[in-house]
């Protein structure tokens, strides 16, 4: 039998009204009491009725966070920092985050299961400045595991949705449009190869950032530059590849299509991509690439590890540059040259967009908010001038 609020109240030796207030984050309930009630509710497997809560409050005070299930998912350090910014922005306005897992009909190419721990990480990271809200969020964000995007919207669990990693002609748009819930993307949303009209998003300058990284490698004397791309089907993958191609074309350099290798957006994928490039003679053959641009930092780190295991020295034998500017990029050996995105700020900006859309909805308005945020090249020890090969 499904546990009830009465069961939680009995186990916690409090009244049902106290349980109700604790689960809704009411500050009149002591913080320690709320934490204890949340823990007991979790142990019993009790979850509040989202629809009933929404009816009682007029809103859920929850923002859903949906991923298309790309291989890196929320386990990527980029997303942990992004969720911190999104969570901070949401919580300061009284909202918490609810993580949705991808359903089979909503997954983008290369889909994989969502890291369940992301729900707790998102709320916990974003809630440090708001301890009272943290108790409520920590208890029930994690209970969303297995509930997909359609489920959290259809059950009235969220007031709005933040989405990441938009795919080409993203299948999640059909679900969002069906229910009419306010939503915005982290990433440029495109339909049929063009920026989608009427959709709000915040994104880093993927094309310009990738172009800057490759221009840096060219300025160092490299002429044969490989590109390790992200997961197929994502808008960001195509944009960063476009930046690579633009830089090569502007310098009058040919692109051997064999040098463009799928890294699946993961460290393991970056390692495999570098192994493929090594098999083409990278680091040994005079006609092979002398530098690698990886479309995110975790792939670049995987490539760096594979190069080292093959006996190559970075940057003496091969230069490697990444994209994103995750904290790990500073501490690998050698430190990674990368395109720095303001990751935390992207999360805060997306929260601001969603909050604006929610307020506009109450006024019966439907603004379209789109922002491309500049990135900057950070040069570190993984890139160096081309050395003559014997």
Tally of separate domains: 2
User: Would you count the extended β strands for me?
Assistant: 14
The number of distinct helices, counting runs of at least 4 residues, comes to 14
CATH topology of the largest domain: Rossmann fold
Strand order of the largest sheet: 2-1-3-4-7-13
Let me know the largest β-sheet.
Answer: 6 strands, parallel
Silhouette: elongated
Rg computed from alpha carbons, rounded to a whole number of angstroms: 23 Å
Report the average pLDDT across residues. 85
Helix share, percent: 40-55%
The top-level CATH class of the largest domain is Alpha Beta
Cα-to-Cα separation, first versus last residue: 75 Å
Architecture (CATH level 2) name of the largest domain: 3-Layer(aba) Sandwich
Low-pLDDT sequence parts: 106-146
- Sketch the topology as an H/E string, one letter per element: HHHHEHEHHHEHEEEEHEHEHEHEEHEE
Structural class: alpha/beta
């Amino acid at each position: 039998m499904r546990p009830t609020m009465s069961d939680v109240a009995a186990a916690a030796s409090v009244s049902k009204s106290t349980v109700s207030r604790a689960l809704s984050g009411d500050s009149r309930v002591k913080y320690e009491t709320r934490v204890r009630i949340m823990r007991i509710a979790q142990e019993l497997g009790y979850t509040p009725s989202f629809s009933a809560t929404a009816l009682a409050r007029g809103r859920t005070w929850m923002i859903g966070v949906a991923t298309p299930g790309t291989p890196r998912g929320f386990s990527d350090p980029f997303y942990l920092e992004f969720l911190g910014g999104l969570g901070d922005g949401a919580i300061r306005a009284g909202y918490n985050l609810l993580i949705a897992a991808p359903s089979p009909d909503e997954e983008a190419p290369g889909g994989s299961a969502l890291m369940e721990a992301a729900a707790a990480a998102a709320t916990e990271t974003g809630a440090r400045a708001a301890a009272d809200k943290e108790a409520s969020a920590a208890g029930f964000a994690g209970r969303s595991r297995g509930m997909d995007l359609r489920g959290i919207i259809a059950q009235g669990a969220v007031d709005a949705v933040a989405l990441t990693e938009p795919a080409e002609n993203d299948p999640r748009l059909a679900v969002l449009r069906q229910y009419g819930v306010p939503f915005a993307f982290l990433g440029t949303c495109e339909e049929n190869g063009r920026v989608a009209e009427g959709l709000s998003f915040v994104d880093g300058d993927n094309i310009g950032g990738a172009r800057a990284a490759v221009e840096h490698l060219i300025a160092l004397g490299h002429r044969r530059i490989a590109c390790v791309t992200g997961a197929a089907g994502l808008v960001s993958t195509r944009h960063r590849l476009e930046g690579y191609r633009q830089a090569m074309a502007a310098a009058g350099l040919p692109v051997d299509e064999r040098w463009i290798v799928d890294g699946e957006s993961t460290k393991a994928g970056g390692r495999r991509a570098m192994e493929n490039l090594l098999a083409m003679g990278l680091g040994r053959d005079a006609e092979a690439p002398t530098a690698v641009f990886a479309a995110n930092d975790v792939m670049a780190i995987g490539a760096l590890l594979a190069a080292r295991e093959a006996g190559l020295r970075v940057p003496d034998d091969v230069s490697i540059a990444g994209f994103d500017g995750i904290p790990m990029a500073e501490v690998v050996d050698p430190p990674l040259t990368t395109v720095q995105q303001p990751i935390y700020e992207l999360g805060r900006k997306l929260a601001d967009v969603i909050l604006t859309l929610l307020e506009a909805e109450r006024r019966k308005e439907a603004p379209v908010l789109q922002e491309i945020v500049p990135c900057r090249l950070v040069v570190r020890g993984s890139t160096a001038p081309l050395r003559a090969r014997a």
